[in-house]
Amino acid sequence: MIYPHTELRYINNQIGYGVFATKFIPKGTITWALDDLDQIIDPGFVDSVDNTRRELIQKYSYRNQDGKYILCWDLGRFVNHSFHANCIGTAYEFEIAIRDIYPGEQLTDDYGSLNIDEPFQCLPEAGTSRKWVYPDDILHYHQEWDQKVLSALKNFNNVEQPLIHLIQPNYMEKIKLAIEHEILPNSIKEIYFDRHKMSK
């Protein structure tokens, strides 16, 4: 489920739609959490459906560490990519704001953390040498992303968390440990989908 104070807006013909904040979202806020309405789809089923539906699933889903497609039921599926993303995923089935997000600002992810099926070239962004997103980006950037999550978690208990009821109790225990000891028990690297291992 996406953070409630957001809305879908049309950007342009090249990008399409995006998700924008309608209220200030402080650093450390859960911006998305997996919930029971999200569809978890087996790859075999995706392969079996017609091309139109398969393309839509592949366009609007991400893949978890087991290779299953996660299709968000709400605006979460419209969150766009940025190499300077203001939200980032965790090993605990939620995303967190890694800096303050202001009203009218777009919520963005780094698609390198989403186990994409094929690499793709992105629109140029200032301040980064990255031009492509790759399926194995998580193996190269997990330490950087983990540090950003850890920094955001310092604010976790001091901001409103309208999605906190969706976080599993065992994950909440891990979050408490991370805040208390300033170290993540689980790296985002743990959600990497290893296609080579699956094909053996």
TrEMBL record:
Pfam annotation, one family: SET
Taxonomic superkingdom: Bacteria
Signal peptide from the UniProt entry: none
CDD domains tied to this protein: SET
Protein name (database record): SET domain-containing protein
Residue span(s) of domain SET: 4-112
Species annotation: Pseudoneobacillus rhizosphaerae
